[in-house]
Amino acid sequence: MPSPSPQTTTGHASAETSTSALDRLANEFPDAESLGRHKQIRAKLQLETMGLREEIAKLKVELKRDQDPGKMSNIQSEIGQLMLQINVIREKAAEAEAIVKGITSDIQRLDVAKSNLTTTIQTLERWAMLKQAHQQLSHLLPTRRYKEISQALAAVMELLGPLKPLSSIPTVFHLFKAAENDRKTVQEKVAVEMDAFFRQDPNKPVDKRTISEVCLAVDVLGGDFRNHIIERYLQLQLAEYRRIFRATDEAGQLDNVPRRYAWFRRVLKHHDEEDAMLFPDSWQVTRLLVANFSECTRSDLANVLAKQTPAVSVLLDALQGTLDFESGMSRKFGMPFEEVISLSLRGGTSKWVISSIFDKYLSVYVDAQDRAISDMLSAYRGLKSRSSLESAIQEETDAPAPTILPSSTELFYFYGQQLDQCEKYSKGETMKKLSQVFAKWLRIYADDVLLAGLKPVRKSLEGRDNLQEVKTACMVLNTAEYCLNTSLQLEERLKDKIDPKFREEISFQDQRESLSSVMSTCITAILRELETACEPAFAAILKTPWMHLENVSGRSAYVVDLVGSIKQVAEAVRGRVESKKYIRNFADKAVGVVITKFTQSVIKSRPLKKIGAEQILLDVQAVKACLLDLPEPHPENSTTIYTKYVTKNTGQLETMLKVILAPDDPPEGFVQNYCLLIGDRSFTNFQKILDLKGTPRTDQQRLLDIFLSVTSTNSELSDTSFLTHIDMDPPASVDISRTVISPVGSSASLFSPTSGVAGLPSLLRSGSTDGTERSETPKAFGEFRRLVNFATRRDNITTMPH
């Protein structure tokens, strides 16, 4: 980028100067009065000008001095002198270093001479001591003073090491050779002594003190010779064991495993009392004896087990004997058995305990438990489950009646016993397989004992309640809940005991889901019995001529039967079901069943007329009071949520009845009453009310026209209401199982107060099986055509000449 020209720079400076001058003038003369001070301002400016000129002169002098050529030459001359001084210093430093080296070289030679002299003196001393120690050893060799021999030999072996570099000297070489010969002589003498000890003649007892001293000499002779002596001792100790308990002989079979350990305990006892004290503690001969026995036994048992599958009792006896032996050895040495047998003369370590050989054969144990559980449950499964349930319920003497099936406690007690037993044998693959057997039979128990014990659904409703079936369902419900809760505890125990690598594979979740399904089926069975008990009362509703009633006469006769049937079933449930949450669950479902069946019966009994609707409304109050009493024997104890739930379910039926009993004259008032109570604009729903009310066809058209006129201008009305879900031709029977959801929640219900769907219980919403929901679209088009016809008729009336 080009630099600005001098003219441009000068122009900018002039512009800035003129601007600053104008600013200065504006500051000095801000108004007309300030012009009178122009003399003072002029004098001030002159002083400033003089100061600037003096400063410029000083700067010129300094610039001239700094740019003097003579000064630069002086600086260069000084730099040259400085370099000369540096070179002189370097030369003097080199001279000083040479002087120091000359002084220290003498000292270094003296240090080397001193070191050589010290080494020579030490070597001579070692040589003298070696000769003396060798001479002493030579004198001791003919004797049996092994303690002194071991000390002399140790001294010779220790002194030979530093003198090895001098072995090329003939004198030293001869002494080295003599010392080696003496060492071999000692080794031969020691071997003879130990062999005599190993094969000692009872008639010629061995001097144990001598053997103890011989072991000291063995230590000096080196690790290889020591291991050879120990291994020979171990072989001799176990030679008879290998002969007696061969895998091919009867004594070596699995049923004689306890004899193996008994034999070794006798050998070990003799070793502890007679031989162990002779060996140095550092040899750990006792641990090595146990390790060798364990290795030999494990190999023998592996061969025996590989030949044939043993009987469960024999296998478990052998395993238990092995575990007892390992536990005893662990206590003896104060360490885990794995650590006891980890010692080896060959340098390696044993990785497996004796009992580990049984692990892959314990599947026969698991199979045996499988068969045992099968035999135990055979008396309760399938067709026998019903009789076992009835016998449990009928055992009602002075003692309290059982609340759960005894077979369930028997099953889990057996599970606990087998788990504790399996923990002794294996915490790995075997325990995992056992847990799978537990899961299998828990699922079978849920299906073949609990579910099979419930009476099949009756194809026809006899109209008679069967409290025996209610009691049966309650007991099955309690048992299923007990099994579900206990399976959780069993799962936790298994996870605590099993090897951590198998912990994630332990789960009874599928079995708990099956048990939850059983509990749902129990609730369904109880509700079915409730429906059966109430059927005569609902049939009485159908037989009552509601349209011909002349007055309201208190509660109807059928209400007494209905309330009595409900209370009878509810008392049986409250007295038998242990968990309050399932009592509440039953109450929620029962409300839905009763209100649904009641509503269906009312719908089938149409037309009702005003008096009939008023009588039914009074009956509903009695039924509502009974339903509030379901969870607890006194309605005041019911929870607020449950009370709201019952009120909502009965309230919609009450609302429908209030609309029906309202007079239809004047018709505008009837329509307004419908809009106020029902709150929808549905033509179909209004038609349902007219049908229930029994309004003549001749009067319906007028009411429908007024309804369309009123609702077409009211935007606050909704399109649907609880009447939308009412089936005017309900089925003869109800699928109660569709109303039962998983009973895990404490307040699960058919139609709870928190439900997002408004209307009568779900049985009414889903009760139609004839395609009612699919016909909603044609009905909507029908309403639209009626609306068009009504609007056209109004237009014709408006345009008609008066």
Describe this structure in words.
This protein is an all-alpha fold and about 800 residues long. It has 4 domains: about 85-200; about 220-360; about 365-505; about 525-795, no CATH class. The chain has 26 helices and no strands. It has helices at about 5-30, 40-65, 70-140, 145-160, 170-200, 210-220, 225-245, 255-275, 285-305, 310-335, 335-340, 365-375, 385-395, 405-425, 430-455, 465-495, 510-545, 555-575, 580-605, 610-630, 640-660, 665-675, 685-695, 695-710, 760-765, 775-800. Helix 23 runs antiparallel to helix 24. The protein starts with 5 loop residues before the first helix and ends with a helix.
Mean pLDDT: 80
Poorly predicted runs: 1-11, 459-463, 739-802
Quick one: overall form?
flat
Q: H/E series, N to C?
A: HHHHHHHHHHHHHHHHHHHHHHHHHH
Assess the beta-strand content as a share of residues.
Answer: under 5%
Largest sheet: none
| Overall number of structural domains | 4
> How many β-strand stretches?
0
Helix content: over 70%
Helices and strands: which structural class? mainly alpha
Supply the number of helical segments: 26
Radius of gyration: 56 Å
User: How far from one another are the termini?
Assistant: 101 Å
